[in-house]
Specification:
The chain has 445 residues and is an alpha/beta fold. It has helices at 18-21, 34-44, 57-65, 76-80, 84-89, 104-110, 151-158, 178-182, 193-202, 218-224, 261-265, 284-294, 318-327, 375-381, 413-425; strands at residues 11-13, 48-50, 71-72, 143-147, 165-170, 208-212, 228-231, 235-237, 258-259, 273-278, 298-303, 331-333, 336-342, 345-350, 356-360, 363-367, 370-372, 401-403. A 5-stranded parallel β-sheet has the order 6-5-4-7-18, with helices on both faces. The protein has a 5-stranded parallel β-sheet with strand order 9-16-10-11-12.
Amino acid sequence: MATLGHLPDLWDVVLADYDEEMGSSRFVREGALEDRVAYVRKLTGKPVVCVGRFTSPDSMLGQVKRGVVDLVGAARPSIADPFLPNKVREGRLEDIRECIGCNICYAHDFRGAALRCTQNPTMGEEWRSGWHPERVPAGTGGSVLIVGAGPAGLEAAHIWQRGYEVALADMAGEAGGRVSHESRLPGLAEWARVRDYRLSQIKRMPNVTLYLGSTMTAPDVRSFGADYVLIATGAHWRRDGVGRSHARPITALDAAGVYTPDDVFAGRLPQGEVLVFDDDHYYLGPTIALKLASAGVQVRYVTSEGRAGSWSQYTQEQERTQRALIELGVDIDVNVALVAFERSHATLSCVFSGRTRSVAASAVVLVTSRVADETLYRALVGEGNDEQPINSLARPGPDAVTRIGDCLQPAMIANAVYSGHRAARELGSIDGNPRRERVLIQAGP
């Protein structure tokens, strides 16, 4: 580089280690490549451009002013907000939809699937559905009640430039739902932007009112008299073991020692020798294990996959996840499933041979699967009735009730945001937005 440094007009600095260059916010801080980029600039004396998961305009400007870089590459931040440069230029910093560094975009790209973004639900739908990241079609008027201020409910409420009068109610004392809970786990603080960005937008919308600490029953919803109702009441984690490994509940479970992520979120932390059974395979099982281990709890992490947080290989986090567990002294058992827990011990079964063995455990945390909290929805539409999406109704009315987010189908936060956005964007449209798939034209006879 010392020999060739003067030849190019511009150096684009790329790291061979994608775990760092494409690192997620769980393990890599914003602008983490500064030292190495500054070295290249000093060595060559030429302008340098580099990425580094920049999300804040202040961070970008800071590195430019310090002479670290001359140009900032913003790939993931531009996925989260394609109009990032314009908003910086216009001084609209509060309108920037900052990337949370979850790497869901990279995961979809890595798997050859249509790109998705947790912060920007229009990603991948610009042509297929005609969705613009900043503009939504005018509404038909009327009122909307959204029950649940989690990621789906907040997203549905915050795009109400459409002209509806919107009431957003949540039984909790804070908005955010699962985002607020999960962002308090180790490494997930930046995920709170999913909540904070939408709340900041809602506060500036005179036609949107947020009611916290408001438990809505079916009679409450009916008496409210809204033209449309979106049910975004979320989901809860199962405590019977049903998940990937078990199609039926585990019969031998000592209920007194069984915990779920919801218990951890509520501050009910197990003590003693704790076994975390991760049948979910993404970030939640490992981060709960890290939280408990950091609090001094003796933790054994058990997964039915061959690696800790195996799905996070797609988000460039798996190796760091396993390393973090090892460094905190967490015992790791892979390719085994929890099949029984009784008082002081748990029984593990090999996923290949079925061979069992016993390990010490005074409590277990089950990270297996979730169940939609659809009690309110069922009370409104009738038990066992098929859902009638709001965009299929010819006219608004008390029957215009639909589920969104985890209440419809428990999934990733990105899916919940997408669900809320689609419901809000298509509200009042009889046919919804037509999909602009490729048209095949057949030649004449």
